[in-house]
Amino acid sequence: MTYDRELADRLRAELAADPRVSEQAMFGGLAFLVEGALVVAASGRGGLMVRCDPARTEEMVAADGVERMVMRGRELDGWLRVAAEVVDDDAALRHWVAVGQSATAALQDR
Question: What is the pLDDT of residue 27?
Answer without folding.
Answer: 82
